[in-house]
Amino acid sequence: MKPVVITVGPLRFIARFEHAKAPQTCAAFAARLPFEGDLIQARWSGESAWSPLGDLQLGVPVENATSHPSRGDILFYQAAASESEILFPYGSTHFASKVGQLAGNHMLTLTSGHELLPELGRMVLWEGAQRIRFAFEEA
After folding, report:
1. Nearest Cα to 50, choosing from 15, 108, 90, 6?
2. Whole-angstrom Cα distance, residue 54 to residue 50?
3. Of 1, 18, 46, 132, which one's alpha carbon is 20 to 30 angstroms from that of 112?
4. Adjacent-strand bridge partners of 108
């Protein structure tokens, strides 16, 4: 499958889907591309940003779930103990919400743009909400 381009404000990242480890999550999210939302500083997860998705359901099981993603590992969390969201770690992260620790499906991994992660963190922390867009890379 084609790489995914993720834009956050002026920043551009490239990611790959984790099909082998989260096939249903990847297929369901890929079917929704292009996908846009707002990205804000996470309140409980450390050096991470999140895109609140309310009650959005992709109808996927828990697969390849983690509470401790690495920087650049993008998670999808389907509404259960907390609302649905996309988590975008830019540094040390322990995925949580006001109800406690969460585990999200690791569906995308950055393949380029890691050097921009500190700027992503600065933007969401000091400038507020940023638009995020996921789309397949054009050939």
Report:
1. 90
2. 12
3. 46
4. 17, 74
